[in-house]
Amino acid sequence: MKIVVNLLMFLIRFLPTCGRQPSDQRYTQSNLPEGAVARLGKGSVGPVQYSPDGTRLAVVSSVGIWLYGTATYEEIALFTGHTDWIGTVAFSPDGKTVASGSLDKTVRLWDVVEGVHKQTLTGHTDRIHGVTFSPDGTTLASGGGDKMVRLWDVETGEPKGTLTGHTRDIVGVSFSPDGKTAASGSFDETVQLWDIKTGEPKGTLAGHTETVYGVAFSPDGTTLASSGGDNTVRLWDTETWEPKRTLTGHTDKVYSVVFSPDGLVLASGSADRTVRLWDGEIWEPKRTLTGHTDTVTSVVFSPDGVTLASVSYDNTVRLWDIETGEQKGELTGHTEAVCSVAFSPDGTTLATGSWDKTVRLWDPKTAVHKDTLVGHTDWVKGVAFSPDGRTLASGSLDGTVLLWQVD
């Protein structure tokens, strides 16, 4: 999941999906809309991350990283020190450390318990696009504009190695489920593989002829999927790193790729306005989901894996039955492009954020509109549920994150 988040933050910044650079806004606690628990931000808002246990919320803003306790959503700490925009943030698996990467070319580690700065990791010579922790939390990987992946010892802050090989900006870095391999995708049209223990390259996955936009490991770790601007999804065997299959059919850039929770279905969303489903065992096309009338920017599976939601520039969210490929519902009501979508942990609610400045809640089984959350004064770029599903956070270019009591 970490790579998904890192790539999402990168795509928001560099792809024409839902973005413009946020303008500076002043924080205010007054005039909360009905139903909002609190307004967070205190500066232009960037990525938002819940801690693994759901007790902390990190909000990136133009003045630093605000850390909130989710019991009361009162401020616990403000992490300041970066001298340029913070583009990526991640919690360690145990939730005790936050890592942040910035355009100032540094990675910083923050102690969540004490609310203080721990380490500044220097060495990158260009902006940092992505940070991610290894599954055991002992190693941090960072990648960016200097074409290098750097590995860091989380405990000491000391460098553990530098992974070189890319010739252009690195989009993001992902650890395999067992933590032994790192994969990185880049503007140089390749995926690079690295042995985490030795720091040695394991191989270069070449085949894409345009930027690699998405990288995802299957849940069992046996397959790596990459999607690119060459209109293809490519599958790689993680045992031999030989190509398994090139999935063709899309007629425009493939921006999003995701495995179902059980790994039996791969979904891809494209600028060709379609979603394609692929059989995760034989890698044959299962079906093409058509209906959107503009670029599909994101696809996401429900927690139980039976429903796929897709969002598009056409202002709609469409729900699809994975078994039959039939459209289960079309969520209309947004008056401008839909930027983001999220299922609640129990799968009973779907939240969507839009350029129309609203968040809408839907019943994904009946496709019935449940509520419209009004309060933002600019585009809603991201929505996320807390792990217990009781709180929804929405981030906007108006410089705030609004927290909503879902029930």
Spans where pLDDT lies below 50 across 5 or more residues:
1-31
What kind of oligomer do you see? Answer: single chain
Query: What is the strand content?
Result: over 45%
State Rg: 20 Å
Helix coverage percent: under 10%
State the total count of DSSP E strands: 36
Let me know the average pLDDT.
Answer: 79
Please give a structural write-up.
The chain has 407 residues and is mostly beta strands. It is built from 1 helix and 36 strands. A hairpin with a 4-residue loop joins strand 23 and strand 24. The two termini are 26 Å apart.
Short recap of the structure:
Helix content is 3%, strand content 51%.
Keywords for this structure?
single chain, 407 residues, mainly beta, 4-stranded antiparallel beta sheet, 1 helix, 51% strand, globular
Task: Give the topology, please.
Elements: H1 2-14, E1 36-40, E2 45-50, E3 56-61, E4 64-69, E5 75-79, E6 86-91, E7 97-102, E8 107-111, E9 116-121, E10 128-133, E11 139-144, E12 148-153, E13 159-164, E14 170-175, E15 181-186, E16 190-195, E17 201-206, E18 212-217, E19 223-228, E20 233-237, E21 243-247, E22 254-259, E23 265-270, E24 275-279, E25 285-289, E26 296-301, E27 307-312, E28 317-321, E29 327-331, E30 338-343, E31 350-354, E32 358-363, E33 368-374, E34 380-385, E35 391-396, E36 401-405
Antiparallel strand pairs: 1-36, 2-3, 3-4, 4-5, 6-7, 7-8, 8-9, 10-11, 11-12, 12-13, 14-15, 15-16, 16-17, 18-19, 19-20, 20-21, 22-23, 23-24, 24-25, 26-27, 27-28, 28-29, 30-31, 31-32, 32-33, 34-35, 35-36
